[in-house]
Amino acid sequence: MIVHVLDDTPTPDPADDPGPGETDAPEARATSDGVAGTPPLDADAATVLDPADDAVEDEGEDRPDVLVEPDLNAEPDLNEEPDVEVEPVEGGAAADGPAADVAQADAVPDDVTTPTLGTEVHDGSAPADAAAPAHSAPADAAAPAHSVPADDPVLSVASRPADELEESPEGEPDGFERPRPTPRALVLSFGMLAVSVLVGILAVVPAPYAVNGPGPTKDVLGEVDGTPLIEVDGAETFPSTGELLLTTISGTGGPGYPAYALNVLQGWFSPSSLVRPVEEVYPQDLTQEEIDESNAGQMVSSYENASVAALTELGYEVPATLVVAGTVEGTDAEGKLEEGDVLTALDGVALPDYQLLVERLEEVVPGDTVTLTVTRHSRALEVPVVTGEREDGGAQIGVFIDPSFDMPLDVSISIDGIGGPSAGTMFALGIVDLLTPEDEAAGQVIAGTGTIDVTGAVGPIGGIRQKLFGAVRDGATWFLAPAGNCEEVVGHVPDGLRVVEIATLHEAREAMTAIGAGTADDLPTCTAD
Asked: Which CATH code, of 2.130.10.130, 2.40.50.1070, 2.30.42.10, 1.10.3720.10, is assigned to 320-405?
């Protein structure tokens, strides 16, 4: 350090050093940043003190003027020892460093003021790269409790003002060190990646299974795109306050709609879904177009049968032409009757409709011979046929009948996207409800399923368990189930749903009326017997 003395006053000899009461050195002061003490005279961060501003009266003697010449281009040496000694104030001993300064600061008289030379403080400490102010602590002094070490890259960046931070190209402050991931974090990351890859594979890999779940329901008394689902011309119709829901199933696994491994896993864990080998559900020799065409044909046949059965239930006569569509292999009719023959009588009794043919056969004992009157190429023929036995024990003549009906009313059903014969029973109930002035459903939501033939017999269907879940999902509290499905129903009825067993359209109509009237407690239900 270079010190120039501006007067001719000789440098005092150490032996002549005045006592505690006669010192010319300025006493310690507390600064705004908590660092107290006499400002160091540093070679690289010096300050010119104005004698007029820093004079201290002491026994009438003037303090000599001191000029410090700074080297503005030099780098600060933080390890250089300061040339200023701190002498003890009255009541204390001399000490070096900030500890002594802080101790002496408590003893500074209130009438003595340390000049402040424009020092700016940020967050309790000056910027690390700023020149040391005149009243800062010595470079080698211990940092105050709230200061930040200049060589700490993390803490020093955090303590610097936001406008002085420089960002790297990646958008992070210079000096910032990103923490390295722990082994646990690495394991979790790789585990999550593996699970994601596995789920992705399961979502795209086909599986040799068919998965069936609850499908949509439709209110046959409601509308589809603004058009009534059932319309009847030729008779008065009546409104209903209830709902009659036909139920469906949705399936994957058929041609054109493969089931993936993820679908199969979900189906196995879902109580409302059924997973079966695909060959048990879909014919393997048919295309999806052929399956859709078959389902559409079955739907048309179901609502034709429903119309005939409903009108017959209401007392209408529905004449029919009974056309032979083929014969059953191995029966006596094979080779005797031909496709296109029209049945007109059985044992001399005319057959104006299909229902009468069924009623006459119920009186025949299997194995008896009956005489069929047929019209072939405009000629009447009498053909004797030995009857066979149906699976249910009744007699059969061994022919397939494709009846052509002469409907007394024009009944149309509009529905798209749903195929198969299982909606026949609910279609028939809807027609009955529309053509009767009574409000049979009376505000109740009744779901159901089952095939139906022109005689009104209700047959079993597939997917009964999935349909139960679909019904309760869409608000139904009652379900009409075919008697042939009761074994599958028992033990699989969702909460909030009551099941009624039916075998005919007439039984279904009586059940609907009882539910609407609130007298359904005694209706038969499916049991384990």
From this structure: 2.30.42.10
CATH 2.30.42.10 residue spans of the chain: 320-405
Cα(376)–Cα(387) distance, integer angstroms: 21
Cβ pair 354, 455 in contact under 8 A: yes
Nearest to 18 by CA among 51, 55, 59: 59
Q: Tell me if 385 sits within 8 A of 368, measured CB to CB.
A: no
Report how far residue 419's alpha carbon sits from residue 417's, in angstroms, rounded to the nearest whole number: 7
Average pLDDT, the chain: 75
Q: Please indicate, yes or no, whether the overall pTM of this predicted structure exceeds 0.85.
A: no
**The residue type at 103:** A
Per-residue pLDDT, averaged over 172-181, amounts to: 66
> What SS3 class is residue 515?
helix
Q: Would you state the CATH architecture of domain 216-248+294-314+409-517?
A: 2-Layer Sandwich (3.30)
Confidence check: pLDDT of 18 > 70: no
CA distances for 291 relative to 11, 253, 288, 298, 422, angstroms: 117, 13, 5, 11, 16
Closest CA to 346 of 358, 334, 331: 358
Tell me which residue has tokens 């790789």.
190
> Which positions ≥6 away from 318 have C-beta within 8 Å?
308, 311, 312, 353, 405, 406, 407, 408, 454
Residue 296 CA, chain-centre distance (Å), reads 34
Predicted local distance difference test score (pLDDT) of residue 163: 52
- Tokens (6 digits) for 17: 């050093």
Spatial neighbors of 103 by CB under 8 A, at least 6 apart, are 92, 95
User: Closest Cα to residue 109, out of 21, 29, 33, 18?
Assistant: 29
Amino acid identity of residue 195, one-letter, is V
Candidates 326, 320, 324; CA nearest to 307 is 320
Interatomic CA distance for residues 508 and 425, integer angstroms: 8
Q: Which of 88-92, 269-273, 482-486 has the lowest mean pLDDT?
A: 88-92
Asked whether the beta carbons of 477 and 516 are under 8 A apart, the reply is no
CATH 3.30.230.10 domain locations along the chain: 216-248+294-314+409-517
Q: CA 335 → CA 64, 114, 281, 369, 385, distances in Å?
A: 144, 131, 34, 16, 11
DSSP for 110-127 reads: TT--PPP-----BTTB--
Contact of 101 with 86, CB cutoff 8 Å: yes
Q: Which of 501, 419, 428 is nearest to 460 (CA)?
A: 501
Kindly report, residue by residue over 360-388, the tens digit of the pLDDT. Answer: 999 999 999 999 999 999 999 999 999 99
Q: Which helix (H) or strand (E) holds 269?
A: helix 261-269
Q: Which residues pair with 320 in a beta bridge?
A: 405
Mean per-residue pLDDT, 80-92: 49
Q: Which two tokens stand for residue 449?
A: 């399923």
Query: How far is the C-alpha of 212 from the C-alpha of 257, rounded, in Å?
Result: 12
Cβ 135 vs Cβ 119: under 8 Å: yes
